[in-house]
Amino acid sequence: MAFRFLAVPSHRLVNHPQSLPVDERLEPDLPPVHEAVERALAGAEFRDVRAKDRMRALLQGDRPPTLGSPEAGFGPSAVFAQPPQDLPALLRLADELESLARREAGERALVWKCGDCGARYAVPVALVRQVSIRCERCGTPVELNATRSLGEEALIDPFQGAVNHSRKELAVFFREAMARGWPVLVAEDKRVAAAPSGPSA
Ligand SMILES: [Zn+2]
Questions:
Q1: Residue 116 alpha carbon to ligand 1 centre in Å
Q2: What single-letter DSSP state applies at residue 67?
Q3: How far, in Å, is the centroid of ligand 1 from the Cα of 62?
Q4: Å from CA of 124 to ligand 1 middle
Q5: How far is the CA of 113 from the centre of ligand 1 (A)?
Q6: So what's the pLDDT on residue 168?
Q7: How far apart are CA 71 and CA 77, in angstroms?
Q8: Which of 66, 110, 127, 180 could tie 149 with a disulfide, CB 3.0–4.6 Å?
Q9: Centroid of ligand 1 to alpha carbon of 135 (angstroms)
Q10: What are the percentages of helix, strand and coil residues in the chain, rounded to 5?
């Protein structure tokens, strides 16, 4: 299920089928890969319920959501968290997301480049030995000498990077919404559900 979070001031909430105001709203800056956003919330809890289960119950439960949608292509919105009573739970969720992002930030690696063809070689710091390898692309010897590496970087694939970025963005968004006293809303992204799809994986 693809979804969208947003926050608007309580006094500007409207009921479906009206749309929520666009001039006064807060939204996390999330990557367009909805699987990454969904993964970002996996393992995080809100009031002792998995955050994803709560969203599913709100959006796909017996009672459909009643608030206006964020824009065309989205279903009606439901209140995910309401200040002030949900403030502590939402702040805990934000903390949880940030610690998940830190834990999965990836191990550090040292990086070298082949002097001839520029091919990159990254070796996890714990596995670095001073050896010479032959460049896979051009055969030139590359000295994996720690003092001559180009530096350290995180060994992280782009998807995991998007997941962690989503976690940090959501944490910032939840905190900001609570600081303003605005309810956090969630709506289902119907554009994804409506898109033609092959056999589901
Ligand atoms: Zn090379």
A1: 5
A2: B
A3: 60
A4: 20
A5: 8
A6: 95
A7: 10
A8: 110
A9: 5
A10: 35, 25, 40
Please say whether the dihedral angle defined by the alpha carbons of residues 1, 42, 7 and 98, taken in this order, is positive or negative: negative
pLDDT in tens, 147-186: 888 888 877 778 888 999 999 999 999 999 999 999 999 9
Q: How far does residue 117's CA lie from ligand 1's centre (Å)? A: 4
- Strands 141-144 and 131-134 turn out to be antiparallel
Q: How far is the CA of 110 from the centre of ligand 1 (A)?
A: 17
Instruction: List residues, by chain if needed, whose CB lies under 5 Å from ion ligand 1.
Output: 114, 116-117, 119, 135, 137-138, 140
As a whole number of angstroms, the distance between CA 44 and CA 24 comes to 28
Give the count of beta carbons closer than 10 Å to the beta carbon of residue 141: 11
- The owner of tokens 């896979």 is 136
Question: Tokens for 82?
Answer: 């309401």
CA of 187 to the centre of ligand 1 (A): 50
Spacing, Cα 132 to ligand 1 middle (Å): 13
- The span from the CA of 154 to the CA of 165, in Å, is 14
- Reading the block at residue 101, the tokens are 């992002």
Q: State which residues of the chain have pLDDT below 50.
A: 197-198, 200-201
Return the amino acid letter for 182.
W
Closest CA to 114 of 144, 87, 146, 73: 144
